[in-house]
Amino acid sequence: MKKILIVVIVLAVLLLAAPFGIGMIAAQRIEDGFDHAVKQVPYMRIAERKYHTGWFNSELDLTIELFSGLGRGVAPSFKVHQDIRHGPILGSDVGLARIKTRLVLEPSTRAELKKFFGTEEPIDIGTVVGFFGGATTVVSSDAHEFESENGKTSWDALKVVVVTSGNGDTFTVEGKWPRVEGDGGDGTRIAMRGMSIMGGGKRIVGDLYDTDLDFNVAGIEIKSPTDSFEIQNLRYVDAMEPDGELLNMSTKMGCSSFETNKVSLTDLHYDFSLQRLHAATFEKLMATLKLGNADPSTATASAGDSLLAPYKEHALELLKHEPVLVIDRIGFANEEGAGLIKGTFTLKGVTPEDFDDNALGLLARIVADFDVDLSEAMLAKLSGSNEAAEGMVSQGFAERKDGHLVSKIQFQDGKLLINGQEQALPGVGGPQAGPPAVE
C-alpha cells in the first residue's frame, strides 16, 4: 500500500510539474514557427514580442510590421495574441500545447463585430502542437445570418484544416466554405458558393515542396443596380514536382464563364509552367530574396540593387540548365469564336559577359516561339469594329486563315520574326515593320 501511495504521489508531482516544462518547450517551438512564417512574406517583420509564462497557461503577444523601412513615417502594423494551454493533457487531446490565436482589435471594432456577427470573434483559429512537433491548425466559423435595415448577410459553416509534420517536411490542407452571400438594401448583391481547397506537399529542399494544391469556387456574383459581374467554376491549380536535380512548376487558372454588362466570355484558361529549374540554386535564390525583404536595413538601397544582386549571384547556375517558360494555354471564347496563345521562352548559352551593359547581351540569347490564333469575328465583337483586324493584317502582324487571324512569333539570334518576316525592335533597330512580301 505504501509503495502504491508513493507511486501515486510521484505521478501527481510529475503531472503537476510537466505543464511548466512542456510550456517552455512549446514556447520555443511556437516562436520559431512565427519566425519562419514571417520570413516567407516579403517586407514583414516581428517588431515586438512579449511572452508571459505561466504554469498551466501562457500568453504570447506579437506586433508585426509591414513594409518596415520602405518609407517615411510609422510602418503599418497589426497585433496577434495567443492563449497557450500547456500539455500533456489538452482536454480530449494530448500534446505539447493547445493554442488559440486572434487578432488584437480596438474595443470599438470589437463592439461593431459583436453587433454585426453576434460575437467579437467570428473566426476561430485553434492549433494543437504534438509532442514531436507536428501541428494541426483548424480555422473555422459557425454558420451565420444577420439582417438589418441595410440588408442581409449570411454564410454556411467554414472549416479549413492544415496539418504539418514535426520537422515541417510535409503538409496537407483541406477546407470548404459552401456559401457566403450578402444583399444590400440598395439592390446590391455579393455571393460566393462552393469554395474549396485541397492539397499537400513534401519538402524537396529548403522551403521548396513537391506540391499539389487545388482551389475551386463554383460561382462568384457581384451585382449593383447598374453593373453586374459573374464568374462560374473558377479554378486555380498549383503544382511543383522534382525531376532529378531539376524542378518543374506549373499554374493553371481558369473558369467556365466570365460575364459583365459589356463582356461575355467562356472557357477561359491561363496555364503556364516553368521547367528545368535547378532546385538547389532556385532555393538559394528564393532564400536570399526573402532575407533581403525581411531585413529593413536593405530597404534603403534601390529596388534594383536589392533584387538584382542575389539574382546575379545565382542566375548563371540557373541558366546553365536552360530553364523554359512555357505558355501552355492562354485561351478564351465567346459566341463568335475562340482565341488561343501558346509558346515557349528560354535563354540559351548565357555567359557572364552577357550581364554587362545593363544585361543587353541577354537579348541575343533569347529563343522564343509563340503561336497566336484569334477568331476574326470575336476580335470584331470585342473591339467594336473590323479595323483592328485590318490593321494587324496590313502591318504583317497576322494572316487570315479560315476566319481566324494567326501569327507565328519567333525570336532567335537577336531577330524578331512574325509570320516569317523580320520586324524592327524598338530601340534596337532592324528592318522596318511592314506587310510581308507579295509573291
Key phrases:
23% helix, 439 residues, alpha+beta
Secondary structure blueprint with pairings:
Layout: H1 2-39, E1 44-52, E2 57-66, E3 77-86, E4 89-90, E5 93-94, E6 97-103, H2 107-117, E7 124-129, E8 135-141, E9 144-148, E10 151-155, E11 158-164, E12 170-184, E13 189-205, E14 208-223, E15 228-243, E16 246-260, E17 264-278, H3 279-294, H4 303-320, E18 324-334, E19 337-347, H5 356-359, E20 366-375, H6 376-383, H7 387-394, E21 399-401, E22 404-412, E23 415-418, E24 421-423
Antiparallel strand pairs: 1-2, 2-3, 3-6, 4-5, 6-7, 7-8, 8-11, 9-10, 10-12, 11-12, 12-13, 13-14, 14-15, 15-16, 16-17, 17-18, 18-19, 19-20, 20-22, 21-22, 22-23, 23-24
Q: What would you note in describing this structure?
A:
By secondary structure, the chain is of the alpha+beta class. The protein is 23% helix and 49% strand. It contains 7 helices and 24 strands. It has helices at residues 2-39, 107-117, 279-294, 303-320, 356-359, 376-383, 387-394, and strands spanning 44-52, 57-66, 77-86, 89-90, 93-94, 97-103, 124-129, 135-141, 144-148, 151-155, 158-164, 170-184, 189-205, 208-223, 228-243, 246-260, 264-278, 324-334, 337-347, 366-375, 399-401, 404-412, 415-418, 421-423. The strands form 2 sheets. It has a 22-stranded antiparallel β-sheet that branches. The chain has a two-stranded antiparallel sheet with strand order 4-5. Strand 13 (189-205) and strand 14 (208-223) form a beta hairpin. Helix 3 runs antiparallel to helix 4. The longest helix has 38 residues, at 2-39. The chain is globular, with a radius of gyration of 28 Å.
